[in-house]
Amino acid sequence: MIAYLRREDGFQNVTRALLQPHSNCVAHALNLCEVYYDFFRSGGRIAAMGALGDLRRVGVVACHDMHPALWQDAGSIKSIHRRVSLADCFAIAHARAADGTVLTSDRHEMEPLMAAGICRIEFIRYRPSRAAQFCTTTIGKSFAPATGFTTRNCLPSREDWKCVPASGRRNSASGFPTVTPDD
After folding, report:
1. What one-character-per-residue DSSP string does the chain give?
2. Which of 43, 79, 98, 175 is deepest in the core (most CB within 10 A)?
3. How many other C-beta atoms are found inside a 10 Å radius of the C-beta of residue 111?
């Protein structure tokens, strides 16, 4: 979600998921907390609230479930796959419960889970070439994780959303391009 909001590499793949007809994009509250934290740290409370509002406006639905089956599944995943963050474990557990797909940029942490068939995982960024890895390491550019989206294609969405830049305007709270629903 952070990559989408900051227009980082791979944000186009998140946009495609948001635009898929009859799909729901759901983010667990713990993953939304990561977004809030990231934007609060870099821009304060107004930027953090603006980022959450931007996600809501493009159709991301917040999931506040904390029923025992969900948190026990997340805890089980975390105990087996220790390198994966607890918030990502909640995204995975939620995707499993909803028969959904996790969208992520965290290739290093998530590839083993994908290989093990834990849940469907789609990486928003392509695997970088060795030259790109060298440049990234040498230049020191870091990529913020964009985990937490769960797409569920089996239920029709309440509304179909299209990401439409509103005349190049920027959200006054987050400073990011304004995205509006198109009925």
Report:
1. -HHHHTT-TTHHHHHHHHHSTT-EEEEEHHHHHHHHHHHHHHH-HHHHHHHHHHHHHTTEEEE----HHHHHHHHHHHHH-TTS-HHHHHHHHHHHHHT-EEEES-HHHHHHHHHTTSSEEEESSPPPPHHHHHHHHHHT--------EEEE-SS--SS----EEEEEEE-TTT-SEEEE---
2. 98
3. 13
User: Domain count of the chain?
Assistant: 1
Asked whether the whole model's pTM tops 0.70, one would answer no
- Which CATH number do you get for residue 128? 3.40.50.1010
Helix/strand/coil (H/E/C) assignment for every residue in 7-22: CCCCHHHHHHHHHCCC
Question: Domain residues for 172?
Answer: 2-154+162-180
Q: What is the pLDDT of residues 15-51, one digit of tens each?
A: 888 888 887 899 999 999 999 999 999 999 999 999 9
